[in-house]
Each structure stands twice: as C-alpha cells, then as structure tokens.
Design brief:
- By secondary structure, the chain is α+β, with helices and mostly antiparallel strands.
- It folds into two domains: 111 residues, Nucleoside Triphosphate Pyrophosphohydrolase (Alpha-Beta Complex), CATH 3.90.79; 136 residues, Nucleoside Triphosphate Pyrophosphohydrolase (Alpha-Beta Complex), CATH 3.90.79.
- Strands 1, 2, 3, 4, 5 and 6 form a six-stranded mixed β-sheet that branches.
- It is globular, with a radius of gyration of 22 Å.
C-alpha cells in the first residue's frame, strides 16, 4: 500500500496571527468549503469552493492553503440553511458517498473539513466545568470563558487489522453484528488506556476472532471522522488458523477467504459484501489480494 504524503498545506502559522480569520473572510480570493451535517457540496465529482461572502450563517475555521496559495476556509453550517440550496446542479454528499470518486488531495480536504465541522458543532462547552468557550487559533482550539482551560479537536486512535494465514493464501474477515451478516471486513477496535498499538492489535484480534498472532506489521493509517477516529492499519499472521471463532457478540461470524473469493467479492459477485471504497479496510483487503493475484 502506498503511503501518501500530505497534500494540504495547513498553514499553521496563520492560526496565531491576530485577526487572520477576519482578514481572510474579507478577501475575495479566499475559498470556502461548506459542511452541513457531515456533507459537502459537489459539482462534477469535485468539492465546491465558494466565496466567503456567500455564506452567512456558519462557524468558521482555517483549513489551510490551496496549491496556488489561496486561503481555504471551512464554514460549518447549521442543518437548515435555505440559502445554500439555490443551485439545482449541486448535490450534498458525505465521505462514504465520495470514496474513490475524488483524488487523495481532495480526500484530505474533505476528511479534515468533516472532522473539524463535527468538533465545532459538538463541543461548544468546556468538558471540565461546562462553561461556554470562545474559538481561538483560527478555529483549532477553544478557551473556556469560566475556568480558562484550552481544548482542542479530539482524535481517538483505533487499530484495524488484515489477518492472513501462515502461507499468505487466505484472509480472515469478520461479520459485525451491526451489519446483519451482509458484509465482512477487517477486525478493528479502539486503543484502551495504557495500551500500545501493538498490544491493542493482539487483544482485539484474540477477543473478536479467537486467534493469536505470530507477527504484526504496520501498513498505513486513515483519519475517519465518525466521529473522530484515526484508523491505524496493520497486517498480521495467525499462529493457529483452526482457532478462529467469532466472539458471538460484536462479531457474529468469522471466515477464511481465498483470493478467488475476494476477487469475486471485490467485483460485487459474492460470496459476501466488502467495505466501501472510502475505507482503509477495503484498501487493505485489495492490498492483500493484489500481492499474489
């Protein structure tokens, strides 16, 4: 799997510049991504940029700079904003809808915008004392007006693991209870307090699929703003393939898949459904499949 270099210039130095947001919102050359309920406006499979003066009711943050140097802002709009629905050729789509339809640079902008919009919407009060907060650092922090504490967008680390057989010819996937057995995917879980990533991998895999691992290696990561996760991907090899057994609660079934079966599933021809193209899970499954296809 190719590890992508960051393509978004986050212009962190502007976050401390006094009056930066007011200046940028008054600049006709500034561009704005509007997010509403986790969705953005799309025209011809591209994220729509608008001028700052076209957005009236929103909470603002700095996303960074475009490749040509223009500032790029986020406008987190409330659910009902009639003025945003004027153009009939525009549609609002979320991350899952857009997976695979936009390039990596646009994907980074999309995920950052959705994650930040969620934080701006969901964290207006101080989690320590409940006091109101004011935005600082161009939307990237909040300071409590009562106790003075600073708060920042939260990211929760989670591991996701592609588990393969000892000969590398089969992939172990699980069916989450929430999917009703219709889809199989890699195993995943949140890092607990005091755990390393590697310890989480071993614990989660044994808890959910019953197998122990003989080797683990890092693959890649993906920001996943549902609500605020960082998915950290690993490849692992099992110690005893016959030990595979679903926990019966979160995972209702586990199954070994051959490359032929994965090929059919990727083509939408069964035997099971796989994760959508926006997810790191699908990328990891494809990465495993293509090694020896």
């Amino acid at each position: 799997m190719t590890i992508q270099r960051p393509s978004l210039d986050r212009a962190a130095e502007l976050r401390e510049e006094p009056g930066a947001m007011e200046r940028l919102r008054g600049d006709a050359g500034t561009r704005v991504i509007v997010v509403r309920e986790g969705r953005v406006r799309v025209v011809d499979s591209s994220l729509l940029r608008v001028a700052p003066d076209t957005v009236v009711d929103a909470t603002w943050a700095l996303l960074g700079r475009e490749a040509d140097g223009a500032a790029l802002l986020l406008a987190a709009a409330p659910p009902e904003t009639d003025a945003l629905d004027a153009a009939p050729d525009e549609i609002w789509l979320g991350l899952r809808d857009l997976g695979g339809r936009i390039d990596s640079g646009e994907s980074e902008v999309l995920v950052t915008a959705i994650a930040m919009a969620g934080w701006l919407r969901d964290a207006p009060f101080c989690p320590t004392c409940g006091g109101g907060t004011e935005l600082r650092q161009a939307g990237w922090s909040r300071r409590c007006l009562v106790c003075g504490r600073d708060h920042f967008p939260r990211t929760d680390p989670a591991v996701i693991v592609a588990v393969e057989s000892r000969d590398g010819e089969r992939l172990l996937l699980g069916a989450n209870a929430n999917w009703g057995g219709r889809m199989y995917s890699c195993f995943a879980g949140f890092v607990e307090a005091g755990e390393s990533l590697e310890a989480t991998v071993h614990r989660e895999i044994e808890e959910e699929s019953g197998v122990r691992l003989s080797s683990v290696r890092y693959v890649s990561s993906q920001s996943w703003p549902f609500p605020r996760s960082l998915m950290i991907g690993f490849r692992a090899v099992v110690d005893d393939e016959k030990a595979a057994l679903a926990d019966g609660e979160e995972i209702i079934d586990v199954r070994w898949f051959t490359r032929s079966e994965i090929s059919s599933a990727l083509a939408g021809q069964g035997p099971v459904g796989l994760p959508g193209p926006a997810s790191i899970a699908r990328a990891m499954i494809i990465d495993w499949y293509e090694e020896r296809a």
